[in-house]
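Bit of a strange request maybe. I'm writing a small parser for structure token strings and I need a real example to test against, not something I typed by hand. Could someone generate the tokens for this chain?
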Amino acid sequence: MSSQQLPLHDLHESEGARFGDFAGYQMPMRYEGGAVAEHEWCRSQAALFDVSHMGVIELWGDGAAAALEQIVPAAISELALDRGRYTFFTNEDGGVLDDLIVTNRGDHLQLVVNAGTKHDDLEYLRAHIDDQCEVSDLVDAAILALQGPEAINIISEFHPVMATTAFGWGHVVRLGDSDAWASRSGYTGEDGVELILPSHSVVSTVGRLLSDDRVRLAGLAARDSLRLEAGLCLYGHDLGPDISPIEAGLTWAIQKRRRREGGYIGADIIGRQISEGPPRVRVGLSSEKRPVREDSTLHDAAGTKIGFVSSGGFGPSFGGPIAMGFVTPEFAEPGTSLTAIQRGREIPIITSPLPFVPHNYYRG
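Reply from user aminoacidic:
Good idea to test on real output. This should exercise your parser:
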């Protein structure tokens, strides 16, 4: 089956994008200046990422929050107006079916889900809670991420209150020909906003943003190196049906009430891992020689396999090869020397604290 195009495909093509297939979409991976330059621009100015491959689902009705709590471990019922919260769908084994952002938009809940799972997520919601609230189809929307230290300064010129809006909160902002939902959030470790807006107006909106010299387009390759330096999980790599949120180091995303009461799918296993500890844990990894890639195995000094690499690459801001992976708890202490085996080649590697580069979120 041929891959789909984003609403901005023609603009990306005209800007010299090099495309690659990701989650069934032709995605701009990098532009003429290269992924490292885009990464560094995001750290210093404002990089604009097109993430319209992701999905938006809405839940309507008075029972939506209580219904959603049956299938996610986050506290949704007390979510404040205009606030978003990170959570995940879990299975009976405590694994993660998808991670998502849920936002209280007042008259409905807005869910932003991953591209590769969005159709499955929609069916999952309908199978479990369709009798308790109205589950929309996938919303026809474009999603942009404006990330970097200048991002808020730029958006605040359209809507000044964004300057004092804390990370995780949002507002409706008028950008060009239409309104956009602007949440102070992102997946780069930098401050910034994510914009959800009608697909038909995205071309004019992007044109207006790119007219600012502080804004440049950036592709998926830079977004991945930024999120890796920030120590953020990527679904299908650092999260999946056989990886629990506790193993992935995401206990913070399960609020105290939900830890006490459970009541969601997989709660017994996840609760046990919270109280007793998980069988393996996510760690940072660094090496001097070369990047280690996903599915490389990790071994102790005796050669025993004790884990695996889930994400890996080069960190331009960190200045060297970095990765994340899972090891048994006794090998998780930062500074532990291990060996990664990649295609039969042994690579010395050391466990490292996460994140590799400090986050620059505005907490208010």
